[in-house]
UniProtKB/TrEMBL annotation:
It comes from the Eukaryota. Residues 1-281 form the Peptidase A1 domain. It holds the Pfam family Asp. This is Peptidase A1 domain-containing protein. PROSITE patterns: PEPTIDASE_A1.
Length: 291
């Protein structure tokens, strides 16, 4: 949880070894022996996490590296490479679309191909670092939400999108958002929610190899991708269940700029560790998928 600590996520864990079966019992997917697993004692994460880095894990010594799930799969010839392709799915669409994870390759049916590739970052903890060149709203006359490029880390472990405070303030004005200091999230009132559901504007993230210029790709996100509601009585009951919120967080510095699972609902990431690069594409939502 090194990168996540920059976002305020902390917690201790008990580590051990166990066998990991991918998919449901009887689905025919492989079982991997002697895998490192961790049980976290924190409320910061509500979902289990499947680590897909090819790097081995080390505990008390660097002389006894433990193969990762991806490393074990490739080492045992269960997949042809350390590559993977992932999109978080779009449950707000009709019909609902589940996420897609392909180990050892990618699913051609799940993205719009483009020619933009980005070198994996030298910092192994921030290898999926990409330039956000602009963020725009399709409403006529709307100013850019982000006009000065930044670099952001793509991180499926967290749900929100973390952007500079001035960019968040531009979102506030565009979507009539209210920041809650108690919940540390943007709340959306019923009238605003109804208006934007009816209008269904789109937000376009222009991504590139760098924060300015060069080849780029547009990831277009509908308002529905940001239309979320709390599902439990959190924050000591001060924010009731069903409260509408916008999954945007105020980043205090560049280490917090993050594109989380909200972004990955409409984006497909391919990480190619053999060639040392990755790509981000507009996600597709076919009726069936063939990897």
């Amino acid at each position: 949880m090194y990168e996540e600590e920059f976002l305020g996520y902390r917690g201790s864990a008990h580590y051990g070894y166990d066998n990991v079966t991918l998919g449901l019992n009887g689905a025919g997917l492989p079982t991997l022996q002697h895998q490192v697993i961790a049980g976290f004692g924190t409320k910061g994460f509500y979902l289990g996490i499947l680590g897909i880095s090819p790097l081995p894990l080390n505990f008390t010594t660097l002389d006894d590296p433990q193969l990762s799930l991806l490393g074990t799969s490739e080492n045992e010839a269960k997949i042809p490479s350390h590559s993977w392709g992932y999109t978080a799915g779009a449950y707000y669409r009709e019909p609902k679309v589940f996420g897609s994870l392909t180990l050892g390759g990618y699913d051609l049916t799940r993205f719009v191909a483009n020619d933009v590739t980005v070198a994996l970052g030298a910092d192994q903890s921030r290898d999926l670092l990409i330039g956000i060149q602009s963020i725009t709203l399709d409403t006529p006359g709307s100013p850019p939400l982000l006009s000065t490029g930044i670099y952001s880390f793509i991180n499926s472990m967290v749900s929100h999108i973390w952007l500079p405070v001035e960019v968040c303030q531009a979102f506030e004005r565009a979507f009539n958002l209210t920041w809650s200091d108690i919940a540390e999230m943007y709340l959306v009132d019923h009238a605003t929610h109804a208006a934007f559901v009816a209008q269904n504007p789109t937000i376009t993230f222009k991504l590139g190899q760098s924060s300015t210029g060069g080849s780029s790709v547009d990831i277009v996100m509908p308002y529905k991708a940001f239309d979320l509601a709390t599902t439990a009585l959190d924050f000591n009951g001060s924010i009731p269940s069903g409260t509408r919120y916008f999954p945007l967080k105020r980043a205090q510095n560049s280490t917090q700029y993050t594109l989380g699972r909200t972004f990955l609902q409409e984006a497909y990431v391919i990480a190619d560790y053999e060639r040392g690069n990755f790509s981000v594409s507009q996600a597709l939502f076919p009726a069936t998928s063939v990897a």
